[in-house]
Amino acid sequence: MLQLDVITLFPEMIENAVSHGVLSQAIKGDILKVSAHTPREFATDRHRTVDDRPFGGGDGMIMLAETLEKTILKVKHKNSKVIYLSPQGPVLTATKAQALSREEHLVFICGRYGGIDQRIINHYVDEELSIGDYVLSGGELAALVTIDALARFIPGVLGHSESAEQDSFSQGLLEHPNFTRPRDYLGQQVPEVLLSGHHQLIGDWKKSVSALVTLKKRPDLFKVFLKEEKIRIQDSKRKNKQSPLLELKSFWSSLSSRDRESLGLADLKEEDFHE
Ligand code: ADE
């Protein structure tokens, strides 16, 4: 079972957020354990002080090393990875979330106000981690985003029908569009192939549609995908090695305009298929 300990001045933020949906199911099923701990527990003065003004002046209060350290030592053991949520860290990706899901024990430190004393980072933090290039008023939302994203990769957290393999980014591509009843909605039809019951055909079709969606919405990701796909084809023993871009273009040409409309791909153009 993966254990997550979150150090925060607002433990209720963490406890409330993990008490819903997929995360709460995983906790109930003993697949995941999430606990929140506050440095206030170790504050000894009358005001239970956990922060102070920065030396040298500047904005915001800095979380004190001493109370943070005591909280870290309460939860940390030799196989723990200690992560400080900070906009200065590398940005979280699906690959990173998957790697974190394989750890034994994670300790997340959430800063508030002006951040935490640098000496805690130097001495205790294994990694800093950001969830994007913007500043939040505390690390709690970042810790929750990270916990939610990594939990999806733990076997058993997602039901059979919602595997993480299908998620956007999992193969370097965005997810294909999805449809349910009715077959006709506002004059837009569910693509025929999805009604065919032909699983192999549907699987290949979905992968090609994923590639088209990625080309349209995230050309940066598509470029990386194309590069990797070319290497894969080079390495494989396939005889007729058609360029994956040309292959995708002919797949796109074969789609009816009705399907292109339904898939939200009507504005993709011939010129978009370039290296
Ligand atoms: N704390 C404040 N901003 C943050 C961010 N963007 N990511 C992670 N932690 C943060």
Describe the structure.
- With 275 residues, this protein is an alpha/beta fold.
- The protein folds into two domains: 2-151, SPOUT methyltransferase, trefoil knot domain (Alpha/beta knot, 3-Layer(aba) Sandwich); 168-272, tRNA(m1g37)methyltransferase, domain 2 (Trp Operon Repressor, Chain A, Orthogonal Bundle).
- The protein has helices spanning 11-17, 21-28, 65-75, 94-101, 118-124, 140-151, 199-217, 219-235, 244-254, 257-262; strands at 2-7, 32-37, 51-52, 62-63, 80-85, 105-110, 127-129, 184-185, 188-189.
- A five-stranded parallel sheet has the order 2-1-6-5-7, sandwiched between helices. The protein has a two-stranded antiparallel ribbon with strand order 3-4. The chain has a two-stranded antiparallel sheet with strand order 8-9.
- Helix 4 links the parallel strand 5 and strand 6.
- Adenine binds next to loops.
Give the helix/strand layout:
Elements: E1 2-7, H1 11-17, H2 21-28, E2 32-37, E3 51-52, E4 62-63, H3 65-75, E5 80-85, H4 94-101, E6 105-110, H5 118-124, E7 127-129, H6 140-151, E8 184-185, E9 188-189, H7 199-217, H8 219-235, H9 244-254, H10 257-262
Parallel strand pairs: 1-2, 1-6, 5-6, 5-7
Antiparallel strand pairs: 3-4, 8-9
Helix pairs in contact: 3-5, 4-6, 7-8
